[in-house]
């Protein structure tokens, strides 16, 4: 990879006012955030929060996300009743 390649990638990451979201909070850190909002920190509430960041907000304002191992390996909730959980696949593009 050349410096030109890196520059091209960097410019695409911040195109159209987008940026990189750091969403790698640990369970204790996320629990503190939820406590200030009076939200019970459960596996489901943390999953919902991370799905909201990764799946819904990304298209509008983020071009990439920094995820911790816990989040990266988390299975997304089923899309509709009766469907199976699925994992988000990593993309290199």
Give a brief rundown of this model.
This protein has 93 residues and is mainly α. It has four helices and two strands, in the order H-E-H-H-E-H. It has a domain of 57 residues.
List the helices and strands and how they pair.
Blueprint: H1 3-13, E1 19-22, H2 27-36, H3 43-61, E2 62-66, H4 69-73
Parallel strand pairs: 1-2
Q: Your description of this structure?
A:
With 93 residues, the protein is mostly helical. It has a domain at 17-73. Helices cover 48% and strands 10% of the residues. It has four helices and two strands, in the order H-E-H-H-E-H. Strands 1-2 form a two-stranded parallel sheet. The chain is elongated, with a radius of gyration of 16 Å. The two termini are 14 Å apart.
What is the CA-atom radius of gyration, in angstroms? 16 Å
The residue ranges in which pLDDT falls below 50 over 5 or more consecutive positions are: 83-93
- Spatial order of strands in the largest sheet: 1-2
Please provide the ordered H/E string of secondary-structure elements. HEHHEH
Cα separation of the termini: 14 Å
Number of strands: 2
Query: How much of the polypeptide forms β-strand, as a percent range?
Result: 5-15%
Structural class, judged by helices and strands?
A: mainly alpha
With helices defined by DSSP (H or I, 4 residues minimum), what is the helix count?
A: 4
Q: Top keywords for this entry?
A:
93 residues; mainly alpha; two-stranded parallel ribbon; 4 helices; elongated
